[in-house]
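Feature request disguised as a bug report, sorry. It would help if multi-protein outputs had a clear separator. Right now it looks like this:
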Amino acid sequence: MELLRSRILTFLIHQIAQTDERSCVKVELEHRPGGDFRERVVREWVRAQEPTLFEVPRLHEFVSQIIDAAIECADDFDAQHGVVPRRFIVRSFQFMGGRHLFSFTLEET
């Protein structure tokens, strides 16, 4: 789990360090279970609503929120539909419309 935290943190640091038209204005966590199941946005964080969370000193907290939301979503989904791949995407949105993503899979607990 620490390797996953480190990779998400590296991704967010790069995204939040962008300035001007590349400024990160929103981050989404999307669940992609595959098969016959549709993708869905689990949670989104908007810079205008939570500006301090997008500051470098608080990024560890941000990463924890992302991982906690992914684990909760995966556990709920498993309880309803059985165990499926726990695939997620963290997607960042830039001020002028650009997007970047980081994909990961959670191990079953």
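(second protein starts here, but nothing in the output says so)
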Amino acid sequence: MAIWDDIMQKLEEVGQDITSLDVVTLTGDLDLTAEVSSGGLDEMVRNLKDRVKTQANLQMVAYTHVDLDGDVVSFVREGASNEDELMKAHSALVKSSTESRLHLVRFLKDLF
């Protein structure tokens, strides 16, 4: 019975997650530095998230939020245009993510 409860909980989480889609395109500099301890590479990899220091100078180029009911909110940085390679990449990511979400919704619909 516990397995069924776990499955239902996971499906509920997926159901909540598929109700909206967010795509954010950033540009800038991102520097990640990891400290290596005396434990060697294996220990560093296991504890990577605790050992990484981040310095970032990021700017949002575009943001798109899509709700399951079709409502869309989109932001494009001033000066960005459809000719900009970052805008082309953002548009491709929105299209790809929307198609993936549609396939997931169809799969879940067919499952039940």
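Even a blank line would do. Unrelated, but nice: Strands lie at 20-34, 52-67, 72-76.
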